[in-house]
Amino acid sequence: MQSKSETVILRTPGLLGYTADIETSAAEHVCDGKTGVIAMFRKIAVLTCVVSLFSVGSLLVMAGCGSPAPSDGSAKKAKPIVLSYSIFFPPTHAQCLEAEAWAKEVEARTDGRVKINIYPGGSLSQAPQCYEGVVSGISDLGMSCFSYTRGRFPLLEGLDLPVGYPDGKTATRLATDLAKKYAPAETSDTHLLYVHAHGPGILASKKVVASLEDMAGLKVRGTGLSAKIIERLGGSPVGMSQPETYEALQKGVVEATLCPVETLKGWKQGEVISSITDSSVIGYTTAMFVTMNKGKWDSLPADIQNIITAVSEEWVDRHGAAWDKADEEGLAFIRELGRTETALSAEEQARWREAVQPILDEYTAACTAKNLPGAEFLADLQKGIAAASR
User: How far is CA 75 from CA 20, 68, 110, 113, 170, in A?
Assistant: First the structure.
């Protein structure tokens, strides 16, 4: 038979769905007898093997091009849980620094699975709106004062009463313990982690005050609860913020202020007073919450919840110690300035306690009217203070 010059395209299947086009001359295969046919199929078989080997090689190369296993054998870490933390204190305040240390400790113990961004100085939510900001999710965490929203926390307002707190650590421990023991409905819309509170509020004045007679008509800076204390002691409360107090004392707009000792250094008010009276027998405090959005808390894995709870328990005493250190520094500051320190006599202490008793009675009566255990709460608070003062 005469050979022809046409080119024949033979398609052979390969692995992975590839096919190979095999170009061969028809002249090589169009011949008499079966010899040519056998030769043609031998060539097809060889070429098919080549294509198959190529496909297998491609498969191996593709497998090798995947993401390499980590050199340390560990799986790739998931993105961290990011939490926002609104704090009303300025960034340099000791209590804000403690909050930052708390956040770093949580991050460390969770191996970076949690990251907490701090927003100090009310930059995310202002102090009076901080708690509601946590409820609504403006921030995941918040630190501010219960007293900034009067009436919102009717039972826990008892923490601020003039019951004679001896120091910040005692105030902080008792505030946290009682908040957990009573777990009032007023905080049930968030997850309360802990509470901290400053040392006893004392009287700082431009003249020596050693008796209730010295308090008569005295113009004293005070707001909220402290204003009630001033009235019961016979003074005249003048409402103003801490930033306004220095100038008011300097110009004689007020003659005294009720405050924790640390304020005298922190706000430099020790420069414009001449005496302090140790009125810690009726020492009040200001309780501050550290709380988390309830939905956010519930969404956290159980082990992370346990870590946050453990760190928070440890930080109770750290906050209390920070308040006491600040008070020590405030006292050292006024001593450097040579200010007079006045201690109340035992008789005068009894008179001052009696003078503020109606404030405590008003609290329990208000709680009773709202069907709250105010009397029991106050009794536990006083018992705890007595135990700490022994």
Answer: 40, 11, 16, 14, 46
